Amino acid sequence: MADEVLSQNEIDALLSALSSGEMDANQLEHDQQTKKIRVYDFKRALRFSKDQIRGLARIHENFARLLTTYFSTQLRTYAQISVASVDQIPYEEFIRSIPNMTILNIYSVPPLDGRILLEFNPNIAYAMLDRVLGGKGNTVNKIENLTEIETLLMSQLFEKAMDNLKEAWSSLAEIDPMLEEFEVNPQFLQMVSPNETVVVISLNTTIGESSGMINICIPHVVLESIIPKLSVHYWMQTGSKETKPEEYDNLTKNIETAKVKISAVLGNASIQINDFLDLSENDVIQLDQSIHDPLVLMVDEAPKFYVQPGKSKKKIAVQVIDDIKGGNKDE
């Protein structure tokens, strides 16, 4: 450890204290020679370096982004998930920190040893269930009275979410997460010994108007075989490689063969419900499109080009006459 360098003001203050008798030089020398003792708790043995913890944080930040997209799509509501903290603590301490009644999902992650645990706060778990059942995302606290249908729906939702964990972990190991247990009482759960070191990743989660935490508990035994891959040195060695020209060609060919839906809009009209209900055969609806104005060509429901109608080889067709400014022509 490098010696601390004092400023001139600190040196003057020290000399002044010594000369005035406020400080004893002999006592200072004695304190310096006294061995410094730091208390070490063997129950809280730190088995992961700060570098490895940062590696896990990076991976689960990506997992949080994937989960945000997944739940937004599945639940058709606002979802926001982000990493709040990454800590290593004894398993017993983690169990004591979570509610007595909560949603616990235990997954095996072959080919890695051991199992991981995902704890969903009841507030967000029931908000998710309410959305799946067509509700507004309200939450209730009745975890101890889960029905078989509720348990099945939750299990299916959380099991499919683990595809995102598989993708996020792909840089570490090719895992295949499988749901093994669904539990609501942590006292009935014993994955590892109480003193075993586990990494706990806490995710701030908002689903609609409900918020809570998702806690991911990963025992040391699960990460033991892939710990070297968590270091910055490994990430620098396996950084992004330059894309080869043939890879660009393959990507271009795949994009060129992609199918898009196009439609020419002849016009629009607005009528009252009463008029709509009274429509009958041979009634005429007047559109707001003039025959002298070009039509709009929609590409995947986005306006892209101005066109004029006509025929090509006895088939109805349109001819592109201009692009729509701001229509993202290059997309």
Structure description:
The protein is α+β, with helices and mostly antiparallel strands. The protein folds into two domains: about 50-235, CheC-like (Chemotaxis protein chec); about 260-265 and about 290-330, no CATH class. It is built from ten helices and ten strands. It has helices at about 10-20, 25-35, 50-75, 90-95, 120-130, 150-170, 220-225, 230-235, 245-255, 275, and strands spanning about 80-90, 105-110, 115-120, 180-185, 195-205, 210-220, 260-265, 295-300, 300-310, 315-325. It has a six-stranded antiparallel β-sheet. Helix 3 (about 50-75) packs across helix 6 (about 150-170). The longest helix is centred in the first third of the chain and has 26 residues, at about 50-75. The two termini are about 55 Å apart.
What are the SSEs and their pairings?
Blueprint: H1 8-20, H2 25-33, H3 50-75, E1 79-90, H4 91-97, E2 103-108, E3 115-120, H5 122-132, H6 148-168, E4 178-183, E5 197-207, E6 210-219, H7 220-223, H8 232-237, H9 245-256, E7 262-265, H10 273-277, E8 295-299, E9 302-312, E10 315-323
Antiparallel strand pairs: 1-5, 2-3, 2-4, 3-6, 5-6, 7-8, 8-9, 9-10
Helix pairs in contact: 3-6
